[in-house]
Amino acid sequence: MPATVITDLAAELTVPEDGTLSRVLYRDDRMRVVGFAFAAGQELTEHTSALPVVIQVVSGRLDLVLGDEETEATPGSWIHLPARLPHTVHATEPSVMLLTMLPAPYPSESGVPSAP
């Protein structure tokens, strides 16, 4: 399989004037990487993921609620969320982030990945 190279993530994910852009940047049978571009004031309301995820901030500033914990994420921030942790993302300024969905560590009896 050839390498996947994106030389400028911020240019790949243009921040809309209003709203949120999401785009799958990479997918295989082991992981998926989704890029998000948020206009200032946009948010992902509280939700969970069935799989563990990693958030990486490329540009901008995000306020995150991770379970009961609040944190601010800026370029270079790296955040790991275990499966099923309720979380919220709010862009306080135009922002770009990567969301990497990881495989769950333990498959269930049905063969579908599940969290420990």
The tally of strands reads 11
Q: What is the 3D form?
A: globular
- Biggest sheet, spatial arrangement of strands: 1-2-9-4-7
Q: Identify the CATH homologous superfamily.
A: Jelly Rolls
* Helical percentage: under 10%
Sequence of secondary-structure elements? HEEEEEEEEEEE
CATH architectural designation: Sandwich
How far apart are the termini? 30 Å
The CATH class label is: Mainly Beta
Descriptive notes:
This protein is mostly beta strands and 116 residues long. The protein has one helix spanning 9-12; strands at 20-27, 32-38, 43-47, 53-59, 62-66, 69-73, 78-81, 87-91, 95-101, 106-107, 113-114. Helices cover 3% and strands 49% of the residues. The strands form 3 sheets. Strands 1-2-9-4-7 form a 5-stranded antiparallel β-sheet, with no helix packed on it. β5 (62-66) and β6 (69-73) form a beta hairpin. The radius of gyration is 15 Å and the shape is globular. It starts with 8 loop residues before the first helix and ends with a strand. The model has no long low-confidence stretch (mean pLDDT 90).
Please give a handful of descriptors for the protein shown:
116 residues; mainly beta; Jelly Rolls; 5-stranded antiparallel beta sheet
Walk me through the topology.
Layout: H1 9-12, E1 20-27, E2 32-38, E3 43-47, E4 53-59, E5 62-66, E6 69-73, E7 78-81, E8 87-91, E9 95-101, E10 106-107, E11 113-114
Antiparallel strand pairs: 1-2, 2-9, 3-8, 4-7, 4-9, 5-6, 5-8, 10-11
InterPro entries: Cupin_2, RmlC-like_jellyroll, RmlC_Cupin_sf
Organism: Streptomyces chromofuscus
Protein name: Cupin domain-containing protein
